[in-house]
Amino acid sequence: MRHRDLAGRLLLEPTRPPDEAAGPASTQVCLRWPVPPRGPLLTRLLALLLGLFIPAALSVAVVPDEFDALLRRADDVKSADPRAFRSMLERMEQLTSAASQVQLEQLRYLQIYRMSLDGQFPQAIAALRELATEATDVSTRFRATAFLANNYAGTRDFAAGLDALNQALAMLPAIEDTNIRHQGYLAAAILYNQAGQYDLALRYVDITLGEPASGRSRCIAGIMRLEALFALGRLPSDARGLDGSVEECERHGEQLLSEFVRGFQARVLFNGGDAAAAARLLESRLDAVASSEYPRLIAEHHALLAEARLALGDAAAARRHAQRAIDASEGVEFSLPLVTAFRVLSREAEMRGDAASALAHHRRWAAVDRAYIDDIKARELAYQLAQHDSLQKTHTIELLNQRNKLLELESEVNKQAANNNRLAIAMLVVLLASIALWAYLTKREQLRFRRLAQTDALTGISNRLYFSERAPQILEECAQRGRPAALVMFDLDAFKSINDRHGHACGDWVLAEVARRVSALCGEGDLFARLGGEEFAILRAGADVETALVLANRCREAISSIDTSLAGPRFSVSASFGVAMAAPSPGGSLDALLIHADIALYCAKSEGRNRVSVHGVAECPRSPDGTPANSPSPPAKA
């Protein structure tokens, strides 16, 4: 059974090493995909995730008997042979009267694992919380808490998952078995990678690799390291340096993980400019990847191959492999292979001169890319919120400790003379002041987080998230009052060339300067936001077409007049504008308005850029100065 999350990422399950009778201790990793779906969509998605952390060696301090043997055997086969695993659980449930307390706790853990197999995640999480609290054996408590953390991560509840992981890591000093400790470190690395905290993931990978670890643990740690380095843009520059990771995984039977390492090797070759070598490596592994039947691996492999083939000028092969990546990602809402595949299809269509297909693929690429980026930001925000919650709990505990001390002092003061009563009053004042200070600091932090969630960090204007929340409210208010509304969307022309020729620092300066100049032209009730990259939007309530055109042209002129010499090199800056109107009647949606504005913007781009286009207008209206609104502005002087 294989598992993936909403973005199609495979989930790794470190399993316990075999006992001495079965051979040397090691840490197994199973790649799992979902059971046949059943129930509502959300339940089916949660049922895809059986957890990231599978228990380590069972530590049963009793005389070996049938129950003990069944426990060990069931733990060995629970992921490889679910049918035999269920049969052994049924047999052990008939022998509970002869089991010790520790054995019963281990049986309970395996029963909870069966709940996960059946997709009963709410019940499994509740049972794991109970077992993590009440188990008498510290190893069982540790496994239950780590499994709980990974279940929370699988259901995208990163705040709860990080809290459970912190509890598990706090128990590490009591865990003597090295293999169990390493599995805890790897569980932390997996969770931190999913939460977007790649430096923290690398820290736990380094701890694992810095100690004598089993071969499979080193294989898993290597995969986690590559995943984190890739996300941080720090992959090694020499693909041959990854040969050791491939050999390590293959030597311990982890053929699938070795294919993922080869994928990273291909990325290194491609990033180094050797697209031909990357294509040769990927094509040599096509049969092995196809026989694995792991959709995520297949999608990633074909997406990389499509990118390499496009770079080599083989458009037909690039299109074929990109489509294979999309087919393998069926049911996945967003993932890096999908982003790569749609980008390749868009560029391949441009190369063929098929503008309609290029636009369609470009829009799919933009939608999947935005969803992928939003998912990364959401995971990072969840981590930050969890950290803030932990800090708040620490402050609360400190205040409670102060209050307890104060009550103790107050009890002593009551036994002393009246003059000592003044000391109790002073302590109460200190307590109230501390509570007030804590409340003030907490409120300030909450406001700061709200500002961060609503503001674009680079330009200081509203971000896409706040625009998506506030714009529908403005449109609804206009509809209730019978007033029109206008959406002005603009995109900087040839912005990529600015970054390529003058550097990203110069590009960031241009974005900030554009936001500053356009903000000065916006009214008090206007909603001005950066939608992403070099794309901006202004929503003005009560504006008709002429008013919107005046605003768009003033903004266009302000952008064209930017003096880039203040940032260093001198170059021209311009933007293309699309204007769409919302009728003063109920039922209008923001999505439709954005689509209309985007169509008008695309029209302005296709007509030569640096102009304003209005959606649904056959002939472009004229600007206040009498010139056509869609006419380009004079070129900037050198």
Automatic annotation (TrEMBL):
GO cellular component entries: plasma membrane
Chain segments carrying region Disordered: 1-26, 616-638
GO molecular function: diguanylate cyclase activity
Source organism superkingdom: Bacteria
SUPFAM superfamilies: Nucleotide cyclase, TPR-like
Residues that span the membrane, as ranges: 41-63, 423-441
SMART domains given in the database record: GGDEF (SM00267)
Protein name: diguanylate cyclase
Domain GGDEF: 483-617
UniProt keywords, alphabetically: Membrane, Transmembrane, Transmembrane helix
CDD domains assigned: GGDEF
Enzyme Commission code: 2.7.7.65
GO BP term, pick one: negative regulation of bacterial-type flagellum-dependent cell motility
Catalysed reaction equations from the record: 2 GTP = 3',3'-c-di-GMP + 2 diphosphate
Cofactor dependence: Mg(2+)
A Pfam family per the record: GGDEF
Entries under InterPro entries matching the protein: Diguanylate_Cyclase, GGDEF_dom, Nucleotide_cyclase, Rev_trsase/Diguanyl_cyclase, TPR-like_helical_dom_sf
